[in-house]
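A quick aside before the break. I want you to see a complete sequence-to-structure record at least once, exactly as it would be stored in a machine-readable document. Don't worry about memorizing anything.
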Amino acid sequence: MINMRAFTMIELILSIALLAIVVGFSIPLFPQYGRTNMQINSGLVVDSIRSAQFFSLSQKDDSDWCVYMKEGSILINKKNIDEAFAKSIEISESISFSGINNICFDYKGFPDKDGEIILNEGKNSKVFLLNKNGVLDY
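That is the input. The structure line, written in tokens, reads:
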């Protein structure tokens, strides 16, 4: 008598079900790997503006904090302090700014100016709106 070894139908169904569960959990993770350069740099701009606003609200000496956006970097610094002490965040060299690119927040968290901050990268652009209360809409 020949002893044949093979998988049973139940084993095959269980392995396919397990594979389907693993794939089902991993598919939602894929979009974060497809982020564009514009999306990454937009996030850095928003984080920088919110950080400067937070620093201005949380300081003991009621100091103003500013964000200076220029090609290749974003600087977060106390107002009227040397740039050597600024926190510098590197961004892509392909990103350029238009509209407001220097914003200072007072000790209450209000910006010194309101308007549009525009990021440009080739044909793509992203517009941020900063209102007089310091609310950033994007």
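Two observations worth writing down. The first strand starts at residue 65 and ends at 70. The helical segments are 9-26, 37-58. We'll return to this after the break.
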